[in-house]
Give the backbone structure.
Amino acid sequence: MMKSFSCSNYDIFLTRDCLAYSKIKPAVNQIETHPYFQRDSLIKFCQKHGVCVTAHTPLGGAAANTEWFGTVSCLDDQVLKGLAEKYKKSTAQIALRWGIQRNTVVIPKSSKLERLKENFQVFDFELSKEDMELIRSMDKKYRTNQPARFWGIDLFA
């Protein structure tokens, strides 16, 4: 018997339908969300209904998506660079901390040991309310994960 399940890349309409028609509500919705693609309405909706949100691309794709899909990384944004300097952290740590303070689970991907270690160094500081708002102003509604460019299929149609 199934006790729980999760969904991936469900928008607010699919999540609503899932909650309406499923006997068991999803435990998690894993989505792309980062400073350039914040998805506040979806996150608030999920949290209101007890669905945990996991950010599968909390750093905006960084180098991999830039190389593969030609997309822009939020880690190069001057706002994050300024905050990184202020807090004496990396731009990635600022983005991860921002995600954590939004009550999302962040799962950054890295194959480099030094970055893996750095990604855990986000619990010894907190972004101010003003800095959280500053990052909120960065939203471009910009999806960096663009498999259509890689595979030639529009998966988000």
User: Anything to note?
Assistant: The chain has a mean pLDDT of 90.
